[in-house]
């Protein structure tokens, strides 16, 4: 009878630990960016960092590849552009969202807005 109780305790401990690691925004991020948190998605777009800080920096092919993988989820891209991770490294949301156009991605959704107080237009930024 001790072994099943130990398995249950181990399972509950792992669930609690996963919740702690995800943090308070983990559930929200997982909804917006599929199985990734917003912060994890931001790190996946690390190759875009320099281009997202300045409009005159050449966009790398690695960055464009990552954006093509995420283009189907504009809400996630918006959340990444407005994330704490992006803010900490100096990413400017309007420039970051314009990188999609600079990559030549033509099948981007148009007309969504990014954030309640932001003037960024997701995936349709006038450059």
TrEMBL record:
Keywords from UniProt, A to Z, are: Lipid-binding, Signal, Transport
Which top-rank group of organisms is this from?
Answer: Eukaryota
* Coiled coil regions in record: none
Q: Which residues form the Bifunctional inhibitor/plant lipid transfer protein/seed storage helical domain?
A: 42-110
Which GO terms are recorded in the biological process aspect for this UniProt protein?
systemic acquired resistance
Q: Function, please?
A: Plant non-specific lipid-transfer proteins transfer phospholipids as well as galactolipids across membranes. May play a role in wax or cutin deposition in the cell walls of expanding epidermal cells and certain secretory tissues.
- The name under which this protein is listed is Bifunctional inhibitor/plant lipid transfer protein/seed storage helical domain containing protein
High-level lineage: Eukaryota, Viridiplantae, Streptophyta, Embryophyta, Tracheophyta
